[in-house]
Structures are given as C-alpha cells and as structure tokens.
C-alpha cells in the first residue's frame, strides 16, 4: 500500500487540470526556470507563496524559514539569494512576513523553547532595536502586529546589506527589494512601503 495515497491521487488530479487548461504547460516548464521574483517568507503552512499572489509554478523562486529571517550566518538563505540574483537574474526580492507569526510570538515570550531559541535570537534583536516604539504600545495584539511588521522591515535591510545584492547594484543590475506582510485572517497582502532599488537607498541596520 502506498503511504499517503490521497496526496498522490490529488497530485494526478491537479496535473490533469493543469494540462486541460494548457496541454504544453509541463513541457514548457521543464525546459526552463525564468522567474522574476524571489520570495523570502515564513515556513507557516498558511502562507503559500504562489497561491496568495496568483502565480503558477515556475513564476516565483522561494525560500522559507521560521519568521522569514535573513542573517549573514545562514548559508542556505544566502545561497538561494545568490542563485536567484546571479543565475536566474530575478528582478524583485520580496520579504513577506505575516500577522500572527508563531516565530515572532515565541521571540516575544520569556519562556524557553529549546533549539529554536538560537534562531529566535535574531528576532529578539529586532525587538531590542525597536524597544522604544514597541514598549509604548499597550494593546498586546497591536504590539504583536507591529513586531511582525518591524521584523519584515529589518529583514529587508539585511537582504539589502548582503554582498550579493550590493554587488548586483554596483554592476547596474535591475533589482528591487520589497517588504510585505500577509494577513491570514483575510488573505490580503499589505505593502509596508519598504522598497529599495539601489545601493544609495540601502537602509542601515540599526
């Protein structure tokens, strides 16, 4: 008996539906990968990158981790960025967080969570940077939402300050870095008005 047979059945149904609408879709897809976008998002299963922006397979290159964090020590994330920028020549890097992020929530708590605390340390750095703003927000829900937003903004700065992105701008490559946030409650994306298009506009890490 095949394990998880229902998923294989659903896969076949999905593939058939795609071929009905575009008989050559998979043949064309197999010959090239030419996305314009790199999506750096949270691993949360409720935030599927392709679906929420209405893009098909092959149209968006994706990296996901807990709380959409970008740090210089994460060779996995940096390798994805390098491949996207230097090989795929993507034009947009989108850092997308979401409200209700479990990683951000855990980072705001004083409890110990085990191994993941090493990762959450990066989000706690965001709090320390913006504590003056965060601490005056009395409503816990609003404080949580703002931390999710600030985490995205800080990760955009981290992306912009990678040597990969800075070198791309230095050689004149067209590349923009965006900060977005997604609401699981209504399915709507929000632009955080953070868009960096050149080295002269790179925000400093505070």
UniProtKB/TrEMBL annotation:
| Stretch forming the signal peptide | none
Q: What EC number(s) are associated with this protein in UniProt?
A: 4.2.1.1
Extract the InterPro entries matched here. Carbonic_anhydrase, Carbonic_anhydrase_CS, Carbonic_anhydrase_sf
One Pfam family cited in the UniProt record for this chain = Pro_CA
Q: Which CDD domains match?
A: beta_CA_cladeA (cd00883)
SUPFAM superfamilies this protein is in? beta-carbonic anhydrase, cab
Q: Where does Zn(2+) bind?
A: 42, 44, 98, 101
So what does this thing catalyse? hydrogencarbonate + H(+) = CO2 + H2O
Co-factor binding comment = Binds 1 zinc ion per subunit.
Alphabetical UniProt keywords = Lyase, Metal-binding, Zinc
Q: What top-level class of enzyme does the UniProt entry assign?
A: lyase
Question: What would you give as a GO molecular function for this chain, any one?
Answer: zinc ion binding
What does the record list as GO biological process?
A: carbon utilization
The Swiss-Prot or TrEMBL record describes its family as follows: Belongs to the beta-class carbonic anhydrase family.
What task does this protein carry out? Reversible hydration of carbon dioxide.
Report the protein name in the record.
Answer: Carbonic anhydrase
Lineage of origin: Bacteria, Pseudomonadati, Chlorobiota, Chlorobiia, Chlorobiales
């Amino acid at each position: 008996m095949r394990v998880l047979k229902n998923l294989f059945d659903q896969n076949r149904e999905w593939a058939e539906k795609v071929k009905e609408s575009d008989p050559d879709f998979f043949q064309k897809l197999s010959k090239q990968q030419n996305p314009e976008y790199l999506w750096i998002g949270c691993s949360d299963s409720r935030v599927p990158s392709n679906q929420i922006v209405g893009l098909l397979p092959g149209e968006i290159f994706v990296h996901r981790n807990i709380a959409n964090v970008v740090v210089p020590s994460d060779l996995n994330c940096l390798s994805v960025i390098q491949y996207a920028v230097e090989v795929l020549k993507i034009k947009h890097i989108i850092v997308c967080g979401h409200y209700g992020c479990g990683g951000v929530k855990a980072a705001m708590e004083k409890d110990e969570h085990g191994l993941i605390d090493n990762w959450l340390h990066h989000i706690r750095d965001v709090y320390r940077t913006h504590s003056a703003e965060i601490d005056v927000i009395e409503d816990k829900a609003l404080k949580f939402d703002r931390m999710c937003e600030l985490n995205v903004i800080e990760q955009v700065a981290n992306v912009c300050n990678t040597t990969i992105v800075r070198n791309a701008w230095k050689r004149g490559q067209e590349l923009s870095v965006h900060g977005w946030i997604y609401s699981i409650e209504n399915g709507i994306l929000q632009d955080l008005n953070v868009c960096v298009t050149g080295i002269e506009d790179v925000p400093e890490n505070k």
